[in-house]
């Protein structure tokens, strides 16, 4: 069999990403690729939609299933933000112009 007779490669569809927060105490996140770092005040997660930072108090990793991409975090959740290089540059440019 030559190169042109091979069957096309089946690509895995990108996993969906969802965040569910219950009463600012429980957070379920899907579409997680990797947990880069965490402590009781901050989690850095790599998701299919970019890096996600979760900040809070007494944060605990209750469930980690990287195979399925599911993470459960418990504790008092204060902040949730995505890190996007392009939007940071735009914001930085805007504020630098504003405060000149």
From TrEMBL:
Gene3D superfamilies, A to Z: 2.60.40.2000
Pfam families for the chain: YabP
Family annotation (InterPro entries): Spore_YabP, Spore_YabP/YqfC, YabP_sf
Name assigned to this protein: Sporulation protein YabP
Organism: Virgibacillus siamensis
């Amino acid at each position: 069999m030559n190169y042109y007779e091979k069957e096309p490669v089946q690509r895995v569809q990108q996993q969906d990403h969802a965040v569910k927060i219950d009463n600012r105490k429980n957070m379920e996140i899907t579409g997680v690729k990797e947990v880069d770092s965490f402590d009781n005040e901050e989690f850095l997660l790599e998701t299919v939609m970019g890096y996600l930072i979760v900040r809070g108090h007494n944060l605990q990793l209750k469930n980690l299933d990287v195979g399925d991409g599911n993470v459960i975090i418990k504790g008092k959740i204060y902040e949730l933000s995505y890190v996007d290089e392009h939007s940071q540059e735009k914001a930085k440019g805007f504020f630098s112009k504003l405060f000149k």
